[in-house]
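User: what does the whole thing look like in 3D?
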Amino acid sequence: MIGGLVAIGTLLVAGLIGVLLRRRDGRVRTKNTATVPDDVRAVLDPRAEVTLVQLSTTFCAPCRHARVILADLADKTDGLAHADIDLTDRPELAQRLAVLRTPTTLAVDSQGAEILRVGGVPRRESLLAALRPHLSA
Amino acid sequence: MTRPVTPQVDPRGPRFSAWLTTAVLVAVLLTGWWPLLAAQAVVFALGAFAGLNYSPYGALYRVFVAPRLRPTDEREDVAPLRFAQAVGFGFAVVGTLGYATGLVGLGIVATAAALAAAFLNAAFGFCLGCEAYLLLNRLSITNKKVGTTR
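Assistant: Here's the predicted 3D structure for the full assembly of 287 residues, as structure tokens:
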């Protein structure tokens, strides 16, 4: 009987968490505008105005999906590049970047300043809209 | 960009498995019958350590479900799924030990944790075990014993 109540309670709580996570997923955040560490700077495309730096791990199913979206977006948008950093064996970099989950995508300008970040699989339109002011083309 | 070829599966298979796992874990909570949870632990272990091809739920999907669905080009990497199965295995073992030794509270809590993760995966496609990986790895900087790096 207690087990039944726990089962119902667990499904309700997990359902609520799922809805909240889905709502937060792919949202563009612009709070942090710090300069990125050298490890990230190294992967920036020197010819691009903005590089989308995707942070992935091996154990990350949606990273693959995010990679497809970002690579395609960078391909079709002038001045935009896409790079990938695998954090699987670099937890210290994850800590410095304050990344709690993958995929997280940082949009970094050519000076190495973080413009925005997206947790989860990015949504194409909202990401592009947020990047527009930073792209001249 | 060329990436190393990694083993991949039809992503609907793991979703199907997650629904089956959810049903089994609800049944465990309702009945408190530990052999059922032990069987689920074996299913988790096969998926995690032998490979997803050996998972009984995956086999059910391939034989009974996949032929009825349209084929898809969509593929998902196996590594995150296996890691999540290993996390599920841990909870199932703790739960089984709890129920079997009379620590029913422990059994219920561990089963509920596994149920929450399975349901999030089934209903939302959200892999809790995969998300936890990075957090565990970050913890491992300060405490090497928690490390998940292999």
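In plain terms: Residues 78-100 of chain B form the longest helix (23 residues). The beta strands of chain B are 8-9, 76-77.
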